[in-house]
Amino acid sequence: MSLRVAIQMDHISSVNIHGDSTFRLALEAKARGHKLYHYAVGDLALKDGVLTTLAEPLDVRAEDGNHYSLGAREELNLADVDVILMRQDPPFDMGYITATHLLEHVHPKTLVVNNPLSVRNAPEKLFTTLFPGLMPPTLITSRADALRAFRAEHQDIIVKPLYGNGGAGVFRVKPDDENFNSLLEVFTAFYRLPIMAQRYLPEVRQGDKRIILIDGKPAGALNRVPAEGEARSNLHVGGRAEATTLTKREQEICEAIGPTLRDQGLIFVGIDVIGDWLTEINVTSPTGIQEIERFGGGNLAAQIWDAIEAKL
């Protein structure tokens, strides 16, 4: 089938064509004969219940320096397209939340991937708390006394903003670190939101595993090993990618969360696992499919499009 597909994303000129999952999905859609449109979240407009956007017809190519072409801008009624890929990067702020409300005006007649209602109700760090027994010891609070008590209990901890992404604002606080109170002051002043604290997992030195689930089923995985002297394993801050397979515990985690993901219309999800512990469920704009494919993990982009087309 030939579909009309609108991709809501940060501008395609900025993507790394060798690592960006949205670009890989666009290439696969083109290979299937789908017609692509490109637009930014700021181009949405809701008037009298009709959701439109200023969109540009999109062509993509796996060519460095020549990876896309855009046609003339046109006003596109999003009720007239078949699929919307909601792929703009976080932060998960009020702008992001507003976009999910707007897209609900066309979903599910137009299939939005992922379901905008479920994305709004599944902030990536909070969503994990719905699955007891899978997370490491975790505290979410704005209370300095509770955070100090958590540190006293676990000694070596990770502190991070609740709605951040890509490893931004993630700090490891060791037992002898004298900057903890100052760090809490900075978080309180800058974010004005609750903070997430977790027991530090030394297993991260062996890697932080990204597992891709497609319609609730594990489809591939990538191990990300932090650089020397770095607590974060994100690839864009120097983490090293490695081929990997799923352990029994990781399969159990996927089985525990998979039915919820499928029931909530979260077709393309990336989870993060360190050792035996689930640390995040990424539903907004998960990444990793190109790296997994390069390590021989199969054609994940094709599997994602198979799942999307099956929903239609």
From TrEMBL:
Name of the top EC class for this enzyme: ligase
Which one Pfam family would you cite for this protein? GSH-S_N
Q: Which stretches are annotated as coiled coil?
A: none
Residue ranges constituting the ATP-grasp domain according to the UniProt record: 124-309
Per its UniProt record, the required cofactor names are:
Mg(2+); Mn(2+)
User: What domain of life is recorded for the organism?
Assistant: Bacteria
- Give the molecular function GO annotations: ATP binding; glutathione synthase activity; metal ion binding
Instruction: Decide whether keyword Cell cycle is in the record.
Output: no
Q: What GO cellular component entries does it have?
A: cytoplasm
- PANTHER family xrefs: GLUTATHIONE SYNTHETASE (PTHR21621:SF4), RIBOSOMAL PROTEIN S6 MODIFICATION PROTEIN (PTHR21621)
Quote the protein name from its UniProt record: Glutathione synthetase
Organism, by scientific name, is Govanella unica
Gene behind this protein = gshB
